[in-house]
Amino acid sequence: MASRGPSLPRITDVAALAGVSTSTASKALNDTGQLREETRERVRRAAEQLGFTPDSRGRALSSGRSYTVGLITTDSSGRFSIPIMLGAEDALSAGEMALVLCDTRDDPLREQHYLRSLVSRRVDGIIVTGRRTEAREPIDVPIPVVYAFSPSTDPADTSVIVDDHGGASSTVRHLLSLGRRRIAHVTGPATHNSARARAAATIESAGDAFVGEPMHGEWSERWGRHAVDVLLRCCGDEVDAISCGSDQIARGVCDRLRELGRSVPDDLAVTGYDNWSVMALASRPPLTTVDLELEELGRRTAQLLLDAIADNPHPGLVEMPTRLVTRESTLGT
Amino acid sequence: MASRGPSLPRITDVAALAGVSTSTASKALNDTGQLREETRERVRRAAEQLGFTPDSRGRALSSGRSYTVGLITTDSSGRFSIPIMLGAEDALSAGEMALVLCDTRDDPLREQHYLRSLVSRRVDGIIVTGRRTEAREPIDVPIPVVYAFSPSTDPADTSVIVDDHGGASSTVRHLLSLGRRRIAHVTGPATHNSARARAAATIESAGDAFVGEPMHGEWSERWGRHAVDVLLRCCGDEVDAISCGSDQIARGVCDRLRELGRSVPDDLAVTGYDNWSVMALASRPPLTTVDLELEELGRRTAQLLLDAIADNPHPGLVEMPTRLVTRESTLGT
User: Fold this and answer.
1) Which spans are transmembrane here (chains A, B) (predicted)?
2) pLDDT at position A223
């Protein structure tokens, strides 16, 4: 068919085909009023035959709701916000709510523009998400808002975040359960909240088994490779496990260890973080890592927003559990 | 602020604060009617003070338009559809149009559900995108539709696709310009349209410089590594360049060549495809590759849809140019 098809059938077309008045057709399709079942059925058949779809905007206007939620994201690259968005969309669509996407590209002016536009569209609520786990300034709108991944600085807001403490602790407990007793930690910049939180949880969980200081650098494979050189020079055979703050770093660690003739996990066990499949599965060997369960985080965010829209807000911080995924980098083949 | 703020200020609140009638306030804010500039200004100040945002839904209903576009994607993983979506969103938001996200997860029932929902919301148009370059069955709705990345099987529809022939040819011309005369091609499954199209363009552009047959396998680093073993066993020193159908394959090719002591690009030049930064930049050496310019494809799709909504459809196939990005895997350091 051509891009521009015939115009939409109207309720008057349905009424004409069924041989009833427009108001009877409307009652039949909305299951209201007192009509004979036979009449209702005739109208329904006419609607089906014509491909009639009721205009949901009237319902929206009369109910004072738009059945629409806005999603504000600062994360154009999408690594973290995309799964959150898909989870939220999944939960919302089950309730016949539409998700409007607003990508601010980290531009405060763009964010203000989007907020005005969403309010003028009378969206029922807004989800705000970002690429960092640092808390952000709340947005100022007179409708329900839930923050996902990047929490609001205001504790009275509802924010849904990843339990990074639990995630990092789970890798350490796993390494200890495998008999590892000298664990080093290689991670991202000390200026990043996620790197600091994971490092602190690693130190706390490892206790006496922790070696040296957390090694902070870029979130990159290159830093992972370089960190291995630094670590082996300083501590050599003292280390039997390296827990990493990201899968990219862990993949670089594995590559460099292999190049130096060290076996993973026989000589050193390695763990990642994120369960980013393009890294975790392509790594040689594949990585034991922490899945952030971001789709589930998105679903939970949407549910909390639906609650708030229904006048049942849940102020405060919700920490979502992570999931440890074990693979060859700790278990061997 | 709490999740549920105060209720939205209404036009009557603005009128009361400005000391005018509701109809005067409405005229002042809509720049209609005959009013003194002083009155208009007083109403504007009152609106600003109260944080009043006009309800755009009335305008939408009276104009017969919703200023909303639906985006149907089958690509939950998002590698290709996310940049397309962001480009479309960017072009649409400039025209005050909102983008509603519908992720079908490759489920035809879910797609039908979304189409009904979008039609009942009276979206002005729909963008359909997917993860494969194979043509897909058109959707049946009485509103404008434009297909992005995955074209419609109906030539009367508007479809915007990547010029894969041009993209693959550009890598071959680049290799020939560097003096390479024995080019092999390693790519994805022969059942994939994108792999076949890129292979055909490579053979055609390379002419006598093409070595052997296109090597089809998985879209993976593992296949890239394995293909090097096969290629060196069969053709050994006959090959001075390997053009790959994806960056993942090219990264595997580079890794295996390094492990075998072959220098890239001194012994063999390598090219990728996609300019997927996590692969192309992390590869050792970084990859010369083809950028699909998917954000631009998304923008063009949105513009064509806006044209169609304005009763100016452009039926047919639009092929978008790719961009060659040169890096160390062909140029050296």
Assistant:
1) none
2) 98
